[in-house]
């Protein structure tokens, strides 16, 4: 057996930051109250992280690129037959990645327009009507359960691959190194250099900036109250 580098550092940092951000956002959203301020900030962070991952999926190193692991039905069938071999995400894992990114992206986007009818309004609340915001708030609340189900499924898959197939997925995502049989080809990943990283970071920061609503004009100041006539 030997170890080969599979996951680059930017991808690993993204993965663990997203895991912490999603878990904390779910917790603060359920508790509510004053923690809704942090819930909103975490939503902006998640939007930025997803923007980074989409860009890194285009310009990152070999196994981080979508083109290296997003396959069609034939690859999924081959994997289920046990005839698929690869170093990065397997075809089912690719579906999990795409599903999580899509659902988290939609969930974070919906939260940007949401409100709680008390004190919290998403940073982009002013772009839609109150009725639209209420509708998106309802979807955002229901989406919590979908996110929870996907996270639980993701964790269950990790446990299965660790306990049944002996693949140390958590250790691999921490170190970036994967243990493979000596006879398997293991070319070093290519791409994902400094320029690519700067590009992906720029996309991530731009995504967070748009999500924050910082580009929106400031609301007009409130009119001063009329002096009492006495």
Description:
By secondary structure, the chain is mainly alpha-helical. The chain has a domain at 10-159: Transmembrane di-heme cytochromes, Chain C (Fumarate Reductase Cytochrome B subunit). 61% of the residues lie in helices and 3% in strands. It has a two-stranded antiparallel sheet with strand order 1-2. The radius of gyration is 22 Å and the shape is elongated.
In terms of DSSP E residues, the strand content is under 5%
Number of strands: 2
Please identify the top-level CATH class of the domain at 10-159.
Mainly Alpha
Kindly report the CATH topology of the domain at 10-159: Fumarate Reductase Cytochrome B subunit
Number of helices: 8
Radius of gyration: 22 Å
CATH-assigned homologous superfamily of the domain at 10-159: Transmembrane di-heme cytochromes, Chain C
N-to-C order of helices and strands: EHHHHHHHEH
Structural class: mainly alpha
Strand order of the largest sheet: 1-2
Distance between the termini: 90 Å
Biggest sheet features: 2 strands, antiparallel
What is the molecular shape?
elongated
| CATH architectural type of the domain at 10-159 | Up-down Bundle
Detail the poorly predicted runs: none
Percent of residues in helices comes to 55-70%
Features:
mainly alpha; two-stranded antiparallel ribbon; 2 strands; elongated; 230 residues; Fumarate Reductase Cytochrome B subunit
Short structural description:
With 230 residues, the chain is mainly α. Helices cover 61% and strands 3% of the residues.
